[in-house]
């Protein structure tokens, strides 16, 4: 029998330019006891049959309401991922994807409904990236340009998500070198998000088979616009998620800290029981 443990860590920083933090994150380290964490976190847990969940949301727009949109998304996920609900789906990959997609849809509707009731928040939205590690797999869902990576000593750093952004579309068409994505004048334009009244949220989902030593990294673009993948990979060689979180945020701040930066990490370890 294979036993798995997870080291999880998360933190956020407002940066040096913005006056408020529009990012939000949440982790669930144990669904059975409803152990949810939305402040700086570092802990290790035994992975049970319900797994662990990590989410990062990067709010935007409205009258200082980006933090409202990201908070609504996070609160919705917490409310949807109850033990009662996940007990019914945790053994079925199809149903796992279904609950994830339904949750994102509810979060999108909740943000839109809030904007209708509170016109001062019109135009707010949020990106979202989440990873549910369960049954030896990571079920990843994202909408926008917040990213999910996996790091392993044997393979290095691999990006598991594809940005929903204008510059990513240019890269896909062969019109832009990936190295120039973050310096392009329209690098801040995203093509999908939660809360866009003119377009459907259109999240993407992906399943990744976890390996011993894998570290899942979720981050807002406050990290990836400041730090290139090579630098992120070098920092993650440290392994310990809490140290990596601290060093990655520090690196983004040293490069200017022009945006809020938020990171959530999960290190997966297995052993024969």
Brief synopsis:
This protein is of the alpha+beta class and 273 residues long. It has helices at residues 66-80, 83-87, 93-117, 166-172, 221-224, 229-236, 241-254; strands spanning 2-13, 23-30, 35-37, 41-46, 52-60, 125-134, 137-143, 147-152, 156-159, 204-209, 215-219, 261-272. It contains 7 helices and 12 strands.
What does this protein structure show overall?
- The protein has helices at 66-80, 83-87, 93-117, 166-172, 221-224, 229-236, 241-254; strands spanning 2-13, 23-30, 35-37, 41-46, 52-60, 125-134, 137-143, 147-152, 156-159, 204-209, 215-219, 261-272.
- The model has no long low-confidence stretch (mean pLDDT 93).
- The protein contains seven helices and twelve strands.
- It is 29% helix and 32% strand.
- The strands form two sheets. It has a six-stranded antiparallel β-sheet.
- The radius of gyration is 18 Å and the shape is globular.
| Order of SSEs | EEEEEHHHEEEEHEEHHHE
The main sheet orders its strands as 4-1-12-11-8-9
Helix residue percentage: 25-40%
Low confidence ranges:
none
- The number of helices is 7
What would the average pLDDT be, to the nearest integer? Answer: 93
Question: Beta fraction of the residues?
Answer: 25-35%
N- and C-termini, Cα separation: 5 Å
Overall body shape? globular
| Strand segment count | 12
Q: Rg, please?
A: 18 Å
Going by helix content, strand content and strand pairing, the class is: alpha+beta
| Main β-sheet description | 6 strands, antiparallel
